[in-house]
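Chapter review: from sequence to fold.
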Amino acid sequence: MANYGMALDYKNCINCKACEVACKEENGVLLGADKHRIWVGANDVKGEWPLLDIASAAFLPSQCQHCEEAPCQEVCPTNATYYNEHGVVLVDAEKCILCSYCMNACPYDARYVDDRTMTVDKCTFCTDTRLARGETTTACQNTCPTKVRTFGDLDDYDSEISELLRTREHFSLKENLGTKPKLFYLT
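The token string follows.
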């Protein structure tokens, strides 16, 4: 059984937003929606318009971290938030009562209210769309022109993600919280 995760070579990110657009298209999310499913954050660019130091910009792609110890799952009173057989944190819209406990518990601010279903939603690693159709990459990885994202099976020694994590230094966000995120930022 696969154990999915994602490595992000974030220093290659050019903030083109292709990943955000592909994700929104794949999942029927409105294009203007901010921080829905995935997003790219940026630190402050030095200088003042029109003399901006673009080289000082650093972009940090983010999304649900698919934690092994997910606080959102622990607080859900209806078990709407659950782990699937691949260790992916998902939401069962039929069980979600929109209490927002999961939104408050998520230290990564990765959840939002889907106005179409009036339930809480988040990144699913495309398990219900692309992977369900037999594809092997997420929409965000598939569209990235600078190869920022690598999705795959963390338990497969020969997978591209496993190779990257063996050969490259990496970190996870807020590791001190003990959530054991399955998003890894390559340095």
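Two observations follow directly from the output. Residues 88 and 127 are 8 Å apart (CA to CA). Residues 18-27 form the longest helix (10 residues).
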